[in-house]
Amino acid sequence: MVKLNRASATARAPSARYIGGRLVTGVLLCCLLSACMFSPGLRMSKPAVLPTGDEAAGPAAEVKIPITEINVALIKQLQDAATQRSTAETAALFATGSAYTLGPGDVLQITVWDHPELAQAQGEASPINTARPSDPGPGFVVDQQGNLQFPYIDALHVAGLRVDEVQRVLAGRLRAVLRDPQVTVRMGSYRAKQIYVEGEVRTPGGQPINDIPMTVYEAINRAGGFIPTADQARMLLIRDGQSYPINLTQLIRRGMNPANIVLKNGDLLRVVSRDENGVYVMGEVNKPATALPMRNGSLTLSDAISQAGSFNSGSADPSQLYVIRDSTGAEPKVFHLNASSPVSMILANQFELQPRDVVYIDGSGLVRLSRVLGLLLPAINAGLTGAVLCRAGC
Predict the structure, then answer these.
(1) Domains recognised in the chain with CATH numbers
(2) Which letter, b or e, does each residue of 239-256 get, where b requires 16 or more Cβ atoms within 10 Å of its Cβ?
(3) Which residues contact 346 (CB under 8 A, 6 or more apart)?
(4) What pTM value is reported for the model?
(5) Which residues 6+ apart lie within 8 Å of 265 measured at CB?
(6) What are phi and psi of 70, to 5 degrees?
(7) What string of DSSP letters covers 137-151?
(8) pLDDT in tens, 149-208
C-alpha cells in the first residue's frame, strides 16, 4: 500500500525538465515586462547623441544635438533670419535698366538720305523660309573687334556706344566727303548679348538682350513662362561664377518688385523643379512619402503632414512630432512639436520647411509594446513548446 502511494506521488510530481521549461518561460515573460516598462516611455526628451569617428581612430566622440521646441518665438526667429539672408543675397541684383550698347555681332541699318547707292552696301534680306534666328539681318555687322565698316570712312569703333552716339559720330565722319549728310541709324539685329534660361520653363534656351531691359520677369516671359513643376521660391542666378538665390514669393511678400532685378550679358537663370526640394515624411503616417512644395515654393509642416495622409490614428503619437534639418551637414538640428492639441496645428501651419527636411512622427506606447511582443512571442512560444515536449517525454 505504501509503495502504491509513493508511485502515485511520484507520478503526480512535476518533472525537473518541466519545471525548467516553466522557469525559462517565466524568465522570458519577466524580461518582456521589464522591457515594456521602458520601451513605451522612450522619448527624445534629451539631446540626441551621435557617435563620430571610427574604430581605427579609437573611441568615438559624442556630438549632442539639442532638441528645440517649436513655438511662436522660434517661428519668428526663423522667419526673420530667412528674410535677412534673402535680402543680403539679392541686394546686389537690384539695378536700374540702362540703354543698350553695341557689341560684336550686332547689326545696324544705316540710311544716308539722298544717297541710295549706300543702301546697297547693306545687302539683301535672306528669304524667310531659310532664315535662322542666329542669322544676321540686312545691314552692317559690327565685327569681332567692335568696329563698323562703312563706305567713304575708315573703320569706326562702335562697341560700347549707343545707337544715337553712333549716328552722331557717323554723320561727323561723312561730312568730310558728303555735303550736310542726313544719317539715320537703327538696330537691325541684337546678337551681341544674351542670357540663358534653363529648367522648368516652356522654351528654355538663350534669350537675346535688346533695348528693353532684361529683368527676371522679362526673361521668364520670353522663355514661355513657368511650367507646373517650377519652384518659384528657389530660382538660381549664376553670374561671373557666383550663385544668387532668388525667391520670387518672398520678394513679393515683402513688397519688393522682382522686375527690378536686371540681368546682364552671360547670366544663367535656372528655374528649379519642385521635385528637387521635397521633404521626407516618415514614421506613423498613412502614406509615408516625399512632400513637394506648392507652386509658390512654400511648404509648411501642416502641408507636409497633409500630403502624407495625416497621422495614423491607430499607431501615431501626435505629441512626438519631430523635424530633422541639415541631417547630412556639420550641424544638424532637431525641432519638436506636441501636435496632440488642435491649437498646436496653428504653429505647424506657420513653420516653414526647407528642402530635404525629415518629418518624423513617433509611435504610441501601445504600438511599441505590440512590436516588442511581436519580436519576443516567437521565443516565448518556442519555450512553451519545448516545455510541453519535455513533459510529454517525461
Answers:
(1) 48-70+278-367 (3.10.560.10), 86-97+193-276 (3.10.560.10), 107-127+134-189 (3.30.1950.10)
(2) beeeebebbbbbbeeeeb
(3) none
(4) 0.70
(5) 103, 192, 193, 194, 195, 209
(6) -80, 115
(7) -SSEEP-TTSEE--T
(8) 998 888 899 999 999 999 999 999 999 888 889 999 999 999 999 999 999 999 999 999
